[in-house]
Amino acid sequence: MYSKILLASDGSNHALRAAESALKLVTENFTKVTLLYIVDPNRIKKAPANSKYDEIFFRQKREEKLQSTEDLFIKHGVAYEVKMFKGDPEVEIIKFVNHHPHEILIMGSRGLSTLQEMVLGSVSHKVMKMAKCPVMVVK
Hints:
The protein has a single domain (4-138), classed as Rossmann fold, CATH 3.40.50. Helix content is 45%, strand content 22%. The chain contains five helices and five strands; from the N terminus they run E-H-E-H-E-H-E-H-H-E. Strand 1, helix 1 and strand 2 form a beta-alpha-beta unit. Helix 1 (13-24) crosses helix 2 and helix 3 (89-99) runs parallel beside helix 5. It is globular and about 40 Å long.
């Protein structure tokens, strides 16, 4: 169905369900999935201050968080690449999808309550408003 799918993932259960939804949109041998992982340094406890170890630390975090998603793609023979950036997830996702066109962006919802979402907003809601391509949010 799609030849270029962007999957934004944080390794959560919602993100894994989004990966399963992405698999349903894959056309055999014609689809490439870009797995986008954003590390928010403000949310990681005890992140090392030394930049020499910074890259290793964030790569390990990515591997921990995305292992089940990568295993799923490998099991189904889906071609994928991983892109990792540091920063505010909503800003980095929007920046990436708007500068690297994909046919669809798939991401999981955070499952915030209605009140929290009204007050704080959610990453998926903000991305939906700013992305220049269709966005599928999976609960």
